[in-house]
């Protein structure tokens, strides 16, 4: 079985959170001239995955998770000069946009070929990602659910990679004697977290390695 990170590994939303906030702002308040870096102070180090050593079991439901996050998005808009009440409205619009797989998200060109190559060789696929609770919907909307058997999301289980319990949750899907690899773009969350859990891992994207190369490394192991 291969455990795949999602955002930045299998698919991406260019600009990520700041890009989404800026898209909404330019559509709703086109007279405001704001660069996406203006959102950095409100968002820096304030998402659950920025403190992965702490379980977030109080956020294992979409409403609770977004109740924590929407105020951060609203603060980012306020920092950009949007009045408070309007900032909250825009934050809710950004929330809806971010979880919509039809807007902004795209699958990398080498994703499906790599998944197919490994599947043909007998490997199963699961996603293990630090992400919003609606990740499974995003995966399905991008038609990756036809390749991936399971989606394990930090916004649902309450543990962020590299927390050991995030990997323990994924390993409960393991069949007897089945080898398991982790593939992701984050050296700490994906690679070191997997290795501490006793799993081999491949770092991709951030080091120039594509998913085709990752698949070949797994197949040659």
Main attributes of the structure:
single chain, 10 helices, two-stranded antiparallel sheet, Rossmann fold, 221 residues, alpha/beta
Q: How is this fold's topology laid out?
A:
Blueprint: E1 2-4, E2 11-12, H1 16-28, H2 40-43, H3 62-79, H4 84-98, E3 106-107, H5 111-120, E4 125-129, H6 135-141, E5 150-153, H7 154-157, H8 164-171, E6 181-184, H9 187-196, E7 201-203, H10 211-219
Output the structural class. alpha/beta
In what range is the share of β-strand residues? 5-15%
Number of strands: 7
Overall mean pLDDT score? Answer: 97
Spatial strand order of the main sheet: 5-4-1-6-7
Architecture overview:
The chain is α/β, with parallel strands linked by helices. It has two domains: 2-12 and 105-219, HAD superfamily/HAD-like (Rossmann fold); 16-98. Helices cover 44% and strands 10% of the residues. The strands form two sheets. It has a five-stranded parallel sheet, sandwiched between helices. A two-stranded antiparallel ribbon has the order 2-3. It is globular and about 55 Å long. It starts with a strand and ends with a helix.
Structure summary:
The chain has 10 helices and 7 strands. The protein is α/β, with parallel strands linked by helices.
